[in-house]
Amino acid sequence: MDDGSAPVVVSARNVRKYFPIRGGLFSTKVGDVRAVDGVSFDVREGETVGLVGESGCGKTTVGRLLLRLIEPSSGHTFYRPSDDVEHQLDSLYARLPLLEPETTRGLSPDARSALKELDELADQYSLYRKSTHDMRPIRGKLQIVFQDPFSSLSPRMLVRDIIAEPMAIHHAGTRNERYQRVTELMREVGLNPEHEWRFPHEFSGGQRQRIGIARALALRPEFIVLDEPTSALDVSVQAQILNILKNLQKEQRLAYLFISHHLSVVRAMSQRVVVMYLGKIVERAPTEALFSRPLHPYTQALLSAIPIPDPELKRERIVLQGDVPSPAAPPPGCRFHTRCPAVMPVCSKVEPPLIQVRPDHFVACHLYPTAMTGTPAPEPVAASS
Amino acid sequence: MAISEPPSTESPLPSEPRDRAGIEDLAAPADSTAPPDDVVLEVQDLRTYFFTYDGVVKALDGVTFKIRRGETTGLVGETGCGKSVTAFSITRLISDPPGRVMGGRITFAGANLLWDLEHEARFVPVKGTKRVKVKRSFRRVMAATERLAAVRGKSIATIFQEPTQAMNPIFSIADQLGEALLLHRGIEIFDALLAVTPDDPEVPAAIEELVTTARDGNRERLRAAALRVGDAVHLPSFGIQAFYIARAAGTDTESIRPDIEHAMRRLRVSGFQKGFLRSQRRLIGLQDETNKVHMDEMREGKSMGAALRHIRRQRRRERTARFYYGVRGVHARVNRPLKEELFWRTVGTLEGVSIANPVQVARGYPHELSGGMLQRVMIAMALSAEPAILLADEPTTALDVTIQAQILELMRELKHRVGTSILLITHDLAVIAEVADRVCVMYAGVIVEQGPVRDIFARPLHPYAQGLLASIPRVDQPNKELSSIPGSVPDLIDPPSGCRFHPRCPYAMPICKETRPPMTVEGPEHTVACYLYKGPVASE
Amino acid sequence: MATDSSTISAPEPVRGRRPNPRLDQYKRTWYFLRRNTLAIFGLGVIFALVLVAIYASTTSIPWDGMPLCNSTNNQVVTFQELGLPSGTSWSVTMDGVTQTSTGVNISFSEPSGPTYLYTIGNVSGYSAAPSRGSIGVGGVPLQVSIRFTVAPGTAISGRLSPAAALVLPCTVCTYAAGTPSPGPNCYQTPKNNPSVIAPTVSLSPPGLGPLPMGALTLGPGTAYFYNLFNGLLRGTDYSLLLSVSIVSVGAMLGLIIGAISGYWGGVVDEAIMRLVDIFLSIPTILFVIIVIAVVTTTYQTVLGLSLLDTRVFLLIGGFMVVWWPFYARIVRSQVLVVREQKYVEAARASGASRSRIVLRHIIPNSMYPIFIQMSLDVGTIPLLTGFLVFLGFNIWPTPYFPEWGTISAIGTLNVVQAFLGACESGACAIPWWQLFFPGLALFLFAISVNFLSDGLRDALDPRLRR
Fold first, then answer.
1. Chain A to chain B, count of Cβ pairs less than 8 Å apart?
2. Vertex C150, ends C147 and C153: CA angle to 5°?
3. Chain A / chain C CB contacts < 8 angstroms
């Protein structure tokens, strides 16, 4: 999709996750919480993609979907697709103007054949179509570091067992080899290996987070989802952890998906940023471009809302009115229109597609209706339903 | 005061009469016994220790600062530095095993809140370990808790970190806010209810005007007309009720009059109900007297058991007499005027914190509201008592960025309108930069630097403050190197000798290991505790 | 690459040997347990009970019903002399009868009953100690030793040398050592009410009489009395064993089933929970009876043993089948919480199989709530078994087995009957001890387990620990 020299490690295409809401007498389904509604992006080797948004926007769910910790409702994620496959996918998706999850009715024959080819490709390469047996070796390559260092480590296991567990699950090496690697890993993240005989509750928050990182590194992963890794930590500890992460990335050519709602941290860590709101991507751009010239009104509000540690700085604040709407009943048309300071009549009727407006800079907003010349057709997007 | 604007003496205090429900009318806390200068709370050498199995955790080891009227003081530091402990020590909310306020002096409204502290417990070190056994005198600890109840909530209000967990899920918002209002401003409410005049000659005219204005659809005029109705009846919360009745009627203006007539039933208080209200007013008055006696105890430093017993007797008598009105006045008809009054006052209070649909919110329950809304409700509850000081313990940490912006906006606005002093505790320096006037930087249980916000950010003196500012990633400075402070927060059971920061300090000198540096003055109102600076020692 | 050295707040370890963190935890738990007086009391009582159980199971404690002593049974009273040269005649007078003998022993056979006075006849040159006294003749054969000492001033002529005097007692000794003394065969008749025997406690000399907790009768008007104290002693090990085995197996079953139900969710969860509901809606006792009845009617022999011998095991098995649902429910609710924890998710992210997650993560973290329930149940089980006996559903080899539940059932019956009936016929003696002491034993047992488990829970709870 984007120009880049490094190979793609993970590519998410039109991933959706709907959680059913059950109500009524027999817990019948009365609606859906559209947590993730058609999200596409990819992450290359050695780069960090930042995923930002507020609570309820679905970014945590996206992280888990990419690792297949939860099953999607539709869409595909590809692990290390070759360039050929990528091009094929691009052209296939271009032939599909609309992509409703269940219906194939009303599609042109071209679209239907594209769908069939897509299906075949997916059978071969999509993460979600692989059997448990095939997934096993891949699982080690896709890891996650959680937000809460307090609850992400089992309180009744010794630290050495926690770090060795992924290796034990995959029967990697003998017991001795595993524990040797534990020592190695602890040194890599800056922990004293003598402390491996302790329980997690005896460590501070920053150290626990390091244990979590060591655990994620155990199987030599290629892609790590960092789900708000420093939100629960203090500022100075945060800096330490971020430095560790950056160094590891440089050494091992890791790809990161950095999920956070702290834009300042995201700016410091990522090369590209994806902004989500209520399950949809509203803007996707390289970091510099996003922060220096945010296009989507939501991004602008988000950036202006960040408090800056400088009392002298007086700036124009865009304070959004109201609360985030519930993902179970998203507003029709553009989901942001209820809070948007630049709302227009069309916004409540039609959902804006994600269009490339500048080089590598994608926005989904009616304020930018025309794509940059020379770009392929817009990203397929569901009709507002 | 260091910052350019003088304190809220110049901020626009509403000069309208006081009998309006809601926060708009809150004047500056009129504490007649406040000292002539503008220091509202002074903490001197506060020490709080926690006695645990592993030893004695010296969470606070000599903390000294002042809070001035109308000023927002920020208490900043990382996890474990003791900032929350400081706030809770002021109101003695530290859980008593294992924690214990060891010493110091907290002066508030002329009273020492830590009076009689020495007699509450004895300490016996256990040989061979680092543990210390604490022998508490149950009686005295209970007495201290009761004394401080006179201050908590009324003069020193607190808002907590997790708004979704701070409210009782089984009661509606109106119930909880109403309870706070009743507790803190009960006398005012009862007086208003007893002085209501539903049959005032002006009332029909005011209602007519309301109906006419309703046809317009202009909200400001509608509100003004509704408030005039309230004035006519001498009950401002009725004005708010009238406003919502009119708004709900929409285009059907004919229904407004009968609805208001119907609503006026609650104003027609029968003699029986009036008796009940007077009885409740007496009880609350007695509670206020108890609080006053407690404050006097702490002010003069002597125990006034006789006065307290006397009041307790009166309360007992009053409570027994109240049985005439039904057990605890739960009988609905007797209590209804009060409940409805509290409801509409709650609505007014919610309006004051900019909640869009206050009637719905008031009728709702905490689980129906988002974090931002709940935090507003908490702020409303805290401010309903017109406290002199508001302790805000990480009020925006659990909220999203845009919601945080809203809440900070709200707090700034309330600061100007109401003039409460705020002690803002947070680990986010950016929030401090937005809202605070003064900053105290804490590290490992001591304050290492204090000063006006601009000075601290422009010219941080203490190496820890410098390190902290250098390690924050900034949205507006993309290529900043994220430097970190080496090492980690020290163990408070065996804190480093001398200056607690010396193991991590890049400028550590031999003397830093030996004695703790005193606070020295380095600028107007800017003090720092570091041997790098040789200014004059700050006097207390 | 290591960025910074990190210091932790835990106490410093490491002198080359790996510190054992679990040992530290145990020490810490013990410290907190120590501070809880009630828990230590409970621990002490349980320890004492265990010792009693060991003692009771190793030594034989008699549990035989004995009738009251009346005129039809006589007891033997033997007077034994010490210090007289052989062949000297001496005499004892008791109850008007004088017996003389030249041997070492003089025996009387007296009807058991009241106390008798005896006097020793004079032997020249010697003084006897005691020379007179009184003894109560009751259920135990009595032996009184009379020591004759040479009266000062008497010439010893033709007597044996003092050295010989030392030899003589030894021959007496061998005799005494050789014959085992016959056991008691009746209980002394109580003075007030002949049909019950209250606890016998003597104040001078202070001590417990032969029936320190009174006697257990199997129904008023029976002739046979049992020693309640012995019964309780012997019952200790049965009760302890029963409770511990039933509760632990039930808890383990419940733990596993609850964990599976909670973690798998869906249909499995529903099915198991409905099963639990069924089990819980049937009263426990009834269920156990049904289970036992079904088994006994289907199989005549169990494992080659006849049914009579295996009743107890059937009972235990029946209880285990019935006991696990309580635990399954508790564990399931805890599992629902643990399931959502991040470390479970992390294990799944690493590709752990379901069984591994359940075993290594879910079960160890969901165990705590059952401890409380276990402690409550431990006290209930002996009561339930007793109730079964009460209903007539005898599970023990003999009808009047020394076991707490049985004894308390019998005692309750007696008290109730006495209360209802006996009080009209004048002498109103409600045998309160038959109810009180077994109840006290059960109470002590249950409450000490309760205290101990409370204390353990407090000591293990990380939040209460600081």
1. 127
2. 155
3. 103
Among left, alpha and beta (phi > 0; psi -120 to 50; other), residue C303 is: left
Residue C141 phi/psi, 5-degree rounding, is -65, 140
Q: Which of B80, B434, B483 sits opposite A307 (nearest CB)?
A: B434
Sheet order of strands, B520-523 included = B156-159, B389-393, B421-426, B72-76, B438-443, B446-452, B526-528, B520-523
Task: Name the DSSP class of B440.
Answer: E
The nearest CA of chain A is from the CA of B182 a distance in Å of 29
ipTM metric: 0.77
What residues of A are in contact with residue C350 (Cβ under 8 Å)?
A: 139-140, 143, 165-166, 169-170, 215, 218-219
Find the closest chain B residue to A290 by CA distance: B475
Instruction: Mention every residue, 6+ apart, whose C-beta is less than 8 A from residue B327.
Output: none
d(CA C437, CA C236): 13
Burial pattern C95-122, b for ≥16 Cβ within 10 A else e, equals: eeeeeeeeebebbbebebbeebebebee
Nearest to B437 by CA among B12, B65, B34, B33: B65
Decide if A55 and B430 are in contact by the 8 Å CB cutoff: no
Cis status of the peptide bond prior to C19, with omega within 30 of 0: no
User: What are the beta bridge partners of residue A258?
Assistant: A50, A226
Do you know the residue count of chain C? 466
DSSP category for residue C70: -
User: What are the backbone dihedrals phi and psi of residue C352, each rounded to the nearest 5 degrees, phi first?
Assistant: -70, 145
CA distance A352 to A325: 18
Q: What contacts C452, CB < 8 A, 6 or more positions away?
A: C39, C42, C43, C46, C375
Rounded-to-integer distance, Cα B267 and Cα B230, Å: 11
Contacts of A231 in chain C (CB under 8 A): none
CB B467 within 8 A of CB B483: yes
Single-letter code of the amino acid located at C44: G
Q: Which amino acid is residue B63, in one-letter code?
A: V
Q: Are C414 and C432 spatial neighbours (Cβ–Cβ below 8 Å)?
A: no
Say which of A55, A234, A242 has its CB closest to residue B427. A234
β A28-44/B55-68 pair status = unpaired
Closest CA to C410 of C232, C201, C194: C232
In angstroms, rounded to a whole number, what is the distance separating the alpha carbons of residues A276 and A268?
Answer: 19
> Cβ atoms within 10 A of the Cβ of B299, count?
16
| SS percent in chain C: helix, strand, coil, step 5 | 55, 15, 30
B228 with B206: CB under 8 angstroms? Answer: yes
> Would you give per-residue pLDDT tens digits along chain B (540 residues)?
333 322 323 222 222 333 333 333 333 333 434 444 688 899 999 999 998 888 888 999 989 999 998 889 999 988 878 888 999 999 888 887 788 898 899 999 888 888 888 888 888 888 887 788 888 888 888 888 888 888 888 889 999 888 888 889 899 999 999 998 888 888 889 998 888 888 888 888 888 888 888 887 788 888 888 888 888 888 888 989 988 988 888 778 788 888 888 888 888 888 888 888 888 899 889 999 999 999 998 888 888 889 999 999 999 998 888 877 766 555 556 778 888 899 999 999 999 888 888 999 999 999 888 888 899 999 988 888 888 899 999 888 878 888 888 888 888 888 888 788 999 999 888 888 888 999 999 999 999 999 999 999 988 999 999 988 888 887 777 666 678 888 778 888 888 888 999 988 999 889 888 988 988 998 888 999 999 888 888 765
- Six-digit token string for C53: 């159980």
Q: Which amino acid is at B448?
A: V
pTM over 0.90: no
